[in-house]
Amino acid sequence: MTSTDPGAASRDRNLDRLVSRPLDVLVVGGGINGAVSALALAAAGLRVGLVERHDFGCGTSQESSNMVWGGFKYLEGYEVRLVAKLCRSRNQLARAYPTRLVESRFLAALGAGTPHPPWFAALGANAYWALGQFATRRPRHRPASTIRRLEPAVDTAQVEGGVEYSDYLLADNDARFVSEFALAAIDHGAAVANRVEMAGAERSAAGWRVGLRDVVSGAPLEAEASVLVNTAGPEVPALEEATGTRNTNRLVYSKGVHLVVPQITDSGRILAFFDDQQRLFYVLPMAHRSVIGTTDTRVTDPQVEVTDEDRSFLLDQANTRLELDRPITAGDVIAERCGVRSLVVPPGGTSDGREWTELSRRHAVEVDRRRKVISVLGGKLSDCLNVGSEVIESARQCGLRPMAAARRWYGEPDLVDRHRFEDAARATGIERSQWAPLWRRHGSRALRIVDGIAEDPGAGQPLSDRVDYCQAEVAVMGEYEQIGDLDDFLRRRTFLAQVERREDLLADPGVAKAAEILFGKADGPADLSPR
Known about the structure:
Radius of gyration: 23 Å
Number of helices: 19
Helix content: 25-40%
Shape: globular
Structural class: alpha+beta
Distance between the termini: 32 Å
Low-confidence stretches: none
Number of strands: 18
């Protein structure tokens, strides 16, 4: 289901709908947990609102490795049930989003200093494949000579062998994937708005009265809801305090850093290594660049930034394990990704010492039936469908009556819509090479892009060599996607700010044209300051 009315997605219209009627559920927080919860609840026939105080997917959800995987590394801790559950969710996502998730091969190089010999890793990879119900290509043991042939950038001097196996990688970026869940919730009738923060909450016999503030205008707003869903990510404890609830699970934070550098390998593979602390880190593809990461540093404050120590650590680890024409230096870093993982510590658990490093990315959904608050703690993008299903059940425990969805509540539009788009694109004379990215990024909204190109064929040309989006596409994004500033467009709706240097983008005529289309002026309402 996709709305053809751009007004349905407009921020002003959604603000009006948030406050003009009592809601069954108000979801607070627009990361992956909030976006998928809003979609699941709206598809179940409930009156749903979602507010996000910044932009959709602007926190932890925009700082991931862009991987959708079943947690191979959790087999080290014998978390077989968790891995099987994550693999099922991964497979569901891959089937539902066949153009947005790409099966990718991982090549792990093993040898001196790694915790497992190649033969043992190969056994684990086959067990992982079986837990994933054989949905991907079969794993393969790779001798060092084959690794050297397949990936010449890998220094195989200390490599005894390796294992190649499959998981999935987002074709675009994580934050865009999240925002598409939020937009899909609007298509199902939810009232969804970014840049709206919760200013207070009061519980009465009739339900919740929630004070809100429009961050853009500063105007105070008020919404009524029977149930609140706390999906504030690392800020879950703050909303827990504001609503007077007490969760039995608690959170600790791990800082993860990725560095975007010039392309190291053009094979499309994800290279996996163990660092000096015997933790996995990767070299991942992102368009025509490579991403090195991640770190795993315990922090107490979820507001984090990349330090010189982080950069030096990742560059040292990569340079030690790669055989390049010259070492990668800090001057080669094009962009950085830095966020915290919210790790769930169960009741009675500890987060001290080595046990903290072994905490998995599992999620927990807690329900306060008396105060009618649902809290989602932890989790990861790969497991989002399970979060949506559990939140529906939690809403039922709070006295709401969600309906069974008449059809699958998530996924890309069906083949009928895709064929309609392809027929229209063919009739309009759009080059076939443009079809796949337009459909992948926009689904049924791509038909409106075709309409724009039909009216003005020049609107189908890329805005510049760097900005491979056309005028008609950016115009439709402006209508539907609640893009508030240039950072929303370059960092989250696209990954341009991750694969191009900031100074190059600010000087690029295509970026200026995009800003003019979106905001009516060439500079836009904001620069590329990181959030």
